[in-house]
Amino acid sequence: MLAIVEVQRGIRLADLRTPVRTAHDVLDRVLLIDLDRGLLHDAVSFTSSRVRSLDAIHLVSARRSGARQMLVYDRRLAEAASAAGLEVLQPGV
Description:
Elements: H1 2-13, H2 20-28, H3 37-44, H4 53-65, E1 69-71, H5 75-83, E2 87-89
Parallel strand pairs: 1-2
């Protein structure tokens, strides 16, 4: 469910003229994984000096959803996703 905050934050920071309603429409079509205590405890096992807390939460969420691929823009997250057995997709790399 971090995407609810992350997507709208990204739009605001990028100063895009995308209406908030468009962000909601996109998020309504995406599988959102609830953050629960179990997911957060599982995320701890992925944290390290290189894998930050939010990245660990993203990794566990991807695995729980049954994803085989993960779209990333961060080298550290790419390395962690690959180590977790996910195929890494990196636009522009």
